[in-house]
Amino acid sequence: MTVFRSNKQIYAQVIDDTTGKTLAAASSLKVIDGGPKKEIAAKVGETIAKNAQEAGVHAVVFDRNGYLYHGRVKELADAARRGGLKF
C-alpha cells in the first residue's frame, strides 16, 4: 500500500508489485463531508481497507513514500489496521 499526500488531499493505493496493477484505491476526493484533515485521512484508511479486502488482499507492505509516519499518514495507517489490513 502506498500513500501520496498533498497539501489538501490524501490518496492510498494497494498495488501488486509483480504486475504493476492497482488492486484497490481510495482518496479524500471521494470524501464528501469536510472536516479536519486527520479525520479525513482516517476515513480514507477505512475505505482502502474495505476496498482491499473486497479485492482479496488482507496483508500489505506500507510504503509511506518518504513522508514522516506522523499526522495524516499515521491516521490513515491506523485506520487501515482497524479496518482489517495487516502490515
Automatic annotation (TrEMBL):
This is Large ribosomal subunit protein uL18. GO terms for biological process: translation. NCBIfam families: L18_bact (TIGR00060). SUPFAM superfamilies: Translational machinery components. Keywords: Ribonucleoprotein, Ribosomal protein, RNA-binding, rRNA-binding. Gene3D superfamilies: 3.30.420.100. It comes from Tannerella sp. oral taxon BU063 isolate Cell 8/11. Belongs to the universal ribosomal protein uL18 family. The keyword RNA-binding applies. Transmembrane segments: none annotated.
